[in-house]
Write a structure and sequence with these properties.
By secondary structure, this protein is of the alpha+beta class. It contains twelve helices and 20 strands. A hairpin with a 6-residue loop joins strand 19 (391-398) and strand 20.
């Protein structure tokens, strides 16, 4: 446990772990030279660059220190320009533990504090000793929950209070990736290269040398990242929220408190629906989220709560995240078939006094839940075709707009009533949270 007011440094091997892929590249560069029995003159330039980067990394580690100052976490760093960062523990939304593959080998782990308030963001201690990270996390959570700085009793819920909802089966995860968009891209690129190599080896060699190998490595990297992040992902119900832990090479442990959830999205791809599979994601307050490997180019990445699961399990998780969600949705007017024939059968929406749900999609079905207390704005949009059919769309915007919820193609009078109703309910929900 860290003593309040005492300055501490990060883990001594933090520069190596922070280098990540660069560190691995250094090893790949040095091994051939060592196998040759010596270092050739051609290796001196890259080795000099490596030496400079290594020295700068350790200088950065040497000038970085942190301490617990009352109810704040203070981090100081910088050589020429010193920076002193202060993070109020009272605004901590959650504290996550990340264990990258290289960090696991070297005994290091990252502690990431998700902050609330207007700025959001995250405070990072990267890296601390792996043997101390759990105890330090419990100490910071105790301070965040109002404990005295001199108290050593952690406020985190004991592991025995967790109720494990599910651990994603590896076989189901692999199958879901293979029949997902990411899997199809990887399979198409790989199949094209194999067929080309069999029918026209010269063309295949030209394609690979001309950039085909980059495409192949790209789709393999995206597929691997998704599998690595979602491998054996365990979802547990705890008193302080949903706890997610999993990973193959890089391990993550995260707690999602209900107050952090900006919106929820459930995706049902076309080939998943015969199996009853769904993918559940949440948009969280507190800075950018790590990529979940689906290749989406969103302003803020969504956190995967359930990579693949059946509908009853998804409903159970939703009960924990959005307890007062609408249970019924109303279909659009029949005339919408003339405007959106492919989307018509999936369009629907519903609402309660605290939450709105929308469903849309052409090939894959996407359902979004937005708590009204998280609504940033409401927009009524009516295009030229909609005006001819007396239709309108109401967009429900949240911070970051990572989840795009919309009451699409509703009767104009229905859209006007929903806009006025949700504007008033959103104001009331925000007032009740204060």
């Amino acid at each position: 446990m860290s003593e309040p007011g005492v300055w501490r440094r990060l883990y001594p091997l933090s520069p190596i772990v922070r280098g990540g892929r660069g560190t691995i590249g250094i090893v790949i560069l040095l091994v051939p030279a060592l196998l040759r029995g010596g270092i050739s003159p051609g290796d001196l330039v890259p080795l000099a660059v490596i030496a400079v980067i290594t020295v700068l990394g350790f200088v950065s580690w040497f000038v970085t220190r942190w301490t617990i100052d009352g109810d704040d976490l203070r981090i100081e760093t910088g050589v020429v320009r010193r920076r002193s960062l202060r993070f109020p523990l009272s605004q901590v939304q959650a504290i996550d533990i990340l264990r990258p593959g290289l960090g696991r080998l070297l005994g290091a782990a990252e502690l990431r504090l998700r902050m609330g308030g207007s700025s959001g963001g995250a405070a990072r201690l990267s890296y601390v000793a792996a043997g101390e990270v759990d105890q330090l996390r419990d100490q910071l959570l105790a301070l965040a929950h109002g404990a005295s700085p001199d108290e050593a009793t952690p406020a985190a819920a004991p592991a025995g209070d967790e109720h494990v909802l599910t651990t994603v089966p590896t076989a189901r995860l692999v199958a879901s990736i293979l029949i997902s968009d990411v899997g199809f891209y990887a399979e198409a690129v790989l199949a094209a290269l194999i067929v080309t190599a069999l029918l026209a080896p010269a063309v295949a060699s030209a394609v690979i040398s001309g950039g085909g190998l980059v495409w192949l490595l790209g789709v393999i990297t995206v597929t691997w990242r998704r599998f690595n992040l979602e491998y054996r992902l365990t979802v547990a119900d705890a008193p302080d929220g949903l706890r997610l832990s999993g990973g193959l090479v890089s391990l993550t442990s995260e707690t999602i408190r209900p107050g952090r959830v900006q919106a929820v999205r459930m995706v049902e791809p076309l080939l998943w629906r015969p199996f009853g599979w769904c993918r559940l994601q949440v948009d969280l307050a507190g800075g950018r989220q790590p990529s979940d490997g689906d290749g989406s180019a969103q302003r803020r990445q969504l956190r995967v709560v359930l990579p693949v699961g059946r509908r009853p399990l998804v409903e159970q998780v939703l009960d924990r995240i959005v307890p007062d969600r609408p249970q019924r949705q109303s279909p659009p007017p029949r005339r919408v078939r003339f405007k959106s024939p492919l989307r018509y059968r999936m369009l629907a929406w519903g609402g309660t006094d605290t939450c709105v749900v929308t469903t849309s999609g052409r090939v894959r079905r996407v359902t979004c839940w937005v708590p009204l207390e998280k609504v940033q704005s409401l927009r009524r949009v009516q295009g030229p075709v909609q005006r001819r059919l007396n239709l309108a769309t109401v967009h429900v915007d949240t911070a970051g707009r990572a989840v795009r919820a919309a009451l699409r193609d509703r009767d104009a009078s229905e859209a006007d009533q929903a806009l006025a109703r949700f504007a008033e309910l959103a104001r009331a929900a925000r007032r009740s949270r204060r």
